[in-house]
From TrEMBL:
Entries under SUPFAM superfamilies matching the protein: CO dehydrogenase molybdoprotein N-domain-like, Molybdenum cofactor-binding domain
InterPro entries hit by this protein: Ald_Oxase/Xan_DH_a/b_sf (IPR036856), Ald_Oxase/xanthine_DH-like (IPR016208), AldOxase/xan_DH_MoCoBD1 (IPR008274), AldOxase/xan_DH_MoCoBD2 (IPR046867), AldOxase/xan_DH_Mopterin-bd_sf (IPR037165), TAT_signal (IPR006311)
One matching Pfam family: MoCoBD_1
Key words of the record: Signal
PANTHER family linked to this entry: ALDEHYDE OXIDOREDUCTASE MOLYBDENUM-BINDING SUBUNIT PAOC (PTHR11908:SF123), XANTHINE DEHYDROGENASE (PTHR11908)
Stored Gene3D superfamilies: Aldehyde oxidase/xanthine dehydrogenase, a/b hammerhead, Aldehyde oxidase/xanthine dehydrogenase, molybdopterin binding domain
Protein name: Molybdopterin-dependent oxidoreductase
Tagged with keyword Electron transport: no
Organism superkingdom: Bacteria
Domain Aldehyde oxidase/xanthine dehydrogenase first molybdopterin binding residue range list: 254-482
Length: 922
């Protein structure tokens, strides 16, 4: 049985396709939505801990890899299989597949190639511009580019073919052409010159002048020319570059009063290494022209729209009338599942195998070959420090990113890495250039740390070297130079959130690892070296166009349900939603469903334009439509889960309380509407599921819910929120009175009725030019480590480690702790273990697995000697801040600084292996 039309959220109509996200109809086996809803009605759940904890540890079907066709009511029972074949060569002409070399039992039923994509009229979404499959007779654009999609009736046939392609040379290549050249994905320059006095206007900054890019590239290398050159198309660049070159001239001038350091640093490409490789399941029913998909991504809305665009102009027999996308929990993300092209291939597999459910699942070899990677960086950094005061006078850097074969998020990573290049410091003169290059390497994109891991590693090792040269205590140096509340970042704006660098530095200084470093170094065992290192970081969170969809409802028995569009990817977003809503509703939800957008059709949202580049005039005009929002849904990343992902649900919960539970409480107390106490709803508070108000009897949530339903009060609300470094605010008219909140769309349900959209009376979207600011939200973290190195082998052991961080209000303290521990482990892997060589020796050749790619294991970590401290919020109402990226960043330079302290040698490339350490000790 198909879901009724009213069960669909009509996201868009793309070239005649109804694009929807729909729940599966009920059946004897649990339907998809029931499986993904946690903890679930009637299912016991702990008062503390994660709402998804029981399902995860008991092996519930939650992830895309868990599902087969038989698990989905209404689908044919048999699952068929697809194999995505990728090119291990990007310097020769591709001449096709040698399918005759496959064992007979491994012959595919159907082979999909570039010719087939062209024949049916499929289109590549703009974000993924490039051939979905390498055409025969051309050179692959990059290593790991797909060349064909093989479809199989049985798993056995698929499995034999999978192993054969990995073991044999079944792709044919012709003459050598060399790699294809491609234009840079983007090049930018960020320059700031502060005013003569603190608080004075900047002389020049990106906030004032906008972002600039050079107008010329070198004819030989294709690199941008950063020099000041007359360019009638780019006078803005000439102005900014002139200030930038003056900063560099100052750094290169001989000045005995200033210490200047000029260093180069390189970071490597690494894999996100999430637990579950990318997997998807899809079924195209030609009878109803419906494409059903089950996938796990960080960006559900984008994935659904991308698939609709892919098939929107296809021939009739390959163009669905309806696309239903179901989004699973994600078995790890770390950025690598944000805007991944994988769902496009899942959709194509189903469309070319009509009537058969098809599963496309990467094994680890395939994930290494085709999954999104972290950008390798090459950086040159210059710093000037006044010898007398110990203050940084100027900083300049040049960044070159290897973006791989498709643009993906390379431009954004370049910008974030550049604007984060001075970390937590106040520097009056800054000039940073950055260029993201196209290469034949595996595509690089979003990953935890997002460019700042690379640039702040280079910065914090440079800062440590400056401290050594000036005989300054590293923590004291950081204290002198740390950004203060209200001081400006390198883009010319102050952070609009708390700045807690002094407290973090105080904690680092008094903690035993740092306090006892000299004594521990002197007490080293024979044959061993002891070193201590410290580093700090400030990491932005948010993108400048973040969205949140949330719905909260309560039934007559007091059972709470929450729906949100944020994705569970190991970040505990379901529990964060439940905890934040509970502060307003009084109970941990009985049902929490994430990565869901099928319940928000009541908002009737529309959008247009690009939220990052829209003009103020266009935004003002569009906002006249009470249904218009700058964007409907955005991708989930680790650092926006708490801040963004819970916003709409929290505001919806406030509406339910104010216009449903509070009027019910007044009725149960016998308080008349004109009684002054009726307006004091903000003074009520919850203790568990009991509402307390001074001088009146406690009320249980169940009684309040029953009364709210009886009175026809608001028992459900759904909301949309949008942030461009500040939340949009709107006012809505309800019969009980006006309501203003940090949302831009609202619908309410009364009693057991249907949701009704409320037109906003007024709305204030953040100004369009806020995106010129760069980042206005940031959280901070500091890390100290003590290491021990064996002289004879160079083997390094982390003896003790300490991280101190701030995250505003911690919605789920256990998850904050877990993210910090996981971030520490990822930092250790990045600094000491993980490495993907570029090009033909790297993962694009299809032979990489965990045999040669080493990640941090328990034996590499101080499992019982890692201390995590979370600073309490500055105030009870301080909002949650993103923290899951910042906790990784200082780990890497702290280890490098500790290695220097132990060996007297500085390393300027990652990872630092035992062989490298042994080499400098010989």
């Amino acid at each position: 049985m198909r879901p009724s039309r009213r069960d669909f959220l009509k996201l868009a109509s793309v070239c005649g396709i109804s694009l929807s996200v729909a729940p599966v109809a009920s059946a004897q086996v649990p339907d998809f939505t029931t499986r993904e809803t946690l903890p679930g009605r009637g299912v016991a759940h702990p008062a503390l801990g994660r709402v998804d904890g029981v399902a995860k540890v008991t092996g519930g079907k939650l992830y895309a890899a868990d599902f087969r066709a038989a698990d989905l009511p209404g689908w044919p029972a048999t699952t068929h299989h697809a194999l995505l074949v990728r090119a291990p060569d990007a310097t020769h002409l591709y001449e096709g597949l040698d399918l005759a070399a496959l064992p007979p039992q491994a012959t595919p039923t159907l082979v999909v190639t570039a010719e087939d994509i062209k024949r049916i009229g499929a289109r590549v979404p703009e974000f993924y511009a490039g051939d979905l499959f390498c055409p025969v007779g051309t050179t692959p654009l990059y290593l790991g580019q797909p060349v064909a999609l093989l479809l199989f009736e049985t798993f056995d046939a698929y499995d034999v073919a999978r192993v054969a392609f990995r073991a044999g040379n079944l792709l044919k290549f012709g003459k050598e052409t060399g790699p294809l050249a491609g234009a840079n994905y983007g090049a930018f320059r960020f320059t700031r010159v502060a005013g003569a006095e603190p608080g004075a206007p900047d002389i020049y900054s990106p906030l004032q002048e906008g972002w600039i890019s050079p107008g010329f590239v070198d004819g030989g290398s294709g690199r941008p020319i950063w020099r000041v050159l007359p360019d009638e198309k780019g006078p803005d660049y000439v102005k900014g570059a002139a200030y930038g070159e003056a900063i560099r001239a100052e750094l290169e001038a001989v000045n005995p009063a200033v210490l200047t350091l000029d260093r180069s640093f390189e970071t490597q490409s690494v894999d996100p290494m999430f637990l579950e490789p990318e997997t998807g399941l899809a079924w195209y029913d030609p009878a109803t022209k419906t494409l059903d998909m089950v996938i796990g991504v960080q960006s559900p809305f984008e994935a659904a729209e991308a698939v609709a665009h892919l098939l929107g102009a296809a021939q009739a027999d390959h163009k669905p009338a309806t696309i239903n996308t179901r989004f699973c929990y994600v078995g790890g993300g770390f950025g690598g599942r944000d805007h991944t092209p994988f769902p496009l291939y899942v959709a194509l597999a189903a469309m070319f195998f009509p009537g058969r459910p098809v599963r496309l699942a990467h094994d680890r070899f395939q994930q290494f070959q085709g999954g999104v990677k972290r950008h390798a960086f090459k950086m040159r950094s210059q710093i000037g420090v006044d010898r007398k005061s110990g203050l940084i006078t100027a900083f300049a850097a040049d960044h070159v990113l290897d973006g791989g074969g498709l643009a993906n998020y390379s431009v954004s990573v370049a910008v974030v890495g550049a604007t984060g290049a001075i970390g937590m410091y106040a520097v009056p003169k800054v000039d940073v250039t950055t260029v993201a290059e196209h290469t034949r390497g595996v595509t690089a994109g979003s990953m935890r740390g997002y460019g700042t891991l690379q640039t702040m590693t280079a910065l914090e090792t440079l800062v440590d070297e400056a401290c050594t040269a000036l005989s300054l205590d590293p923590i004291e140096f950081r204290r002198r130079n740390a950004l203060k509340v209200g001081a400006r970042t390198m883009t010319g704006n102050p952070y609009s959130v708390s700045v807690r660098a002094p407290e973090i530095l105080d904690r680092l200084q008094t903690q035993a690892i740092w306090r006892d470093r000299a004594r521990e170094k002197a007490a080293a065992r024979s044959g061993f070296l002891i070193g201590t290192g410290v580093a700090c970081a400030a990491k932005d969170y948010g993108t400048g166009a973040d969205c949140s969809l949330g719905a909260v409802s309560i039934d007559p028995q007091g059972r709470v349900s929450i729906n949100g569009d944020a994705v569970e990817m190991g970040n505990g977003i379901g529990t964060a939603l439940a905890n934040r809503v509970a502060t307003h509703i009084g109970a941990i939800a009985d049902e929490v469903t994430v990565a869901q957008i099928d319940v928000f059709d009541g908002l009737e949202l529309v959008t247009s334009g690009d939220p990052y580049s829209i003009s103020q005039a266009d935004q003002d005009q569009a906002a006249r439509d009470p249904r218009w929002v700058p964007a409907i849904s955005s991708a989930t990343s680790a650092s926006i889960g708490a801040h963004v992902g819970t916003q709409a649900a929290a505001e919806a919960a406030r509406v339910v309380f104010r216009f449903g539970l509070w009027p019910a409480a007044l009725a149960l107390w016998g308080v008349a509407p004109h009684d002054p106490r009726a307006e004091r709803w903000t003074e009520a508070y919850w203790q568990g599921e009991t509402l307390l108000f001074s001088g009146l009897p406690p009320l249980r949530l169940k009684a309040l819910a029953a009364k709210a339903h009886e009175q026809g009060g608001v028992t459900g609300a759904m909301a949309h929120a949008f942030s461009r470094w500040a939340w949009a605010e709107a006012t809505f008219a309800l019969p009980e009175g006006e309501w203003s909140a940090e949302i831009d769309a609202l619908a309410v349900r009364r009693g057991s009725g249907r949701y009704q959209r409320l037109d906003r009376k007024a709305v204030a979207f953040p100004p369009a030019d806020y995106n010129r600011i760069g980042t206005a939200f940031a959280s901070m973290c500091g890390t100290s480590v003590r290491i021990e190195i064996e002289r004879a082998t160079g083997i390094l052991r982390i003896v003790k480690a300490y991280s101190v961080l701030e995250c505003g209000k911690a919605l789920v303290p256990e998850v904050v702790l877990g993210q910090a521990q996981g971030g520490f482990a990822m930092g250790v892997g990045y600094a000491l273990l993980e490495d993907l060589p570029p090009f033909e020796d790297g993962p694009g050749n299809g032979t990489w697995n965990l045999g040669q790619y080493v990640v941090a294991r328990g034996s590499d970590l101080p499992l019982h000697d890692l201390d995590i401290e979370v600073l309490p919020p500055l105030a009870a109402n301080e909002p949650p801040k993103g923290m899951a990226e910042v906790v990784m960043i200082p780990v890497v330079p702290a280890l490098l600084n500790a290695i220097f302290d132990a060996t007297g040698h500085r390393f300027y490339a990652l990872p630092v292996t035992p062989e490298m350490i042994k080499g400098v000790l010989a």
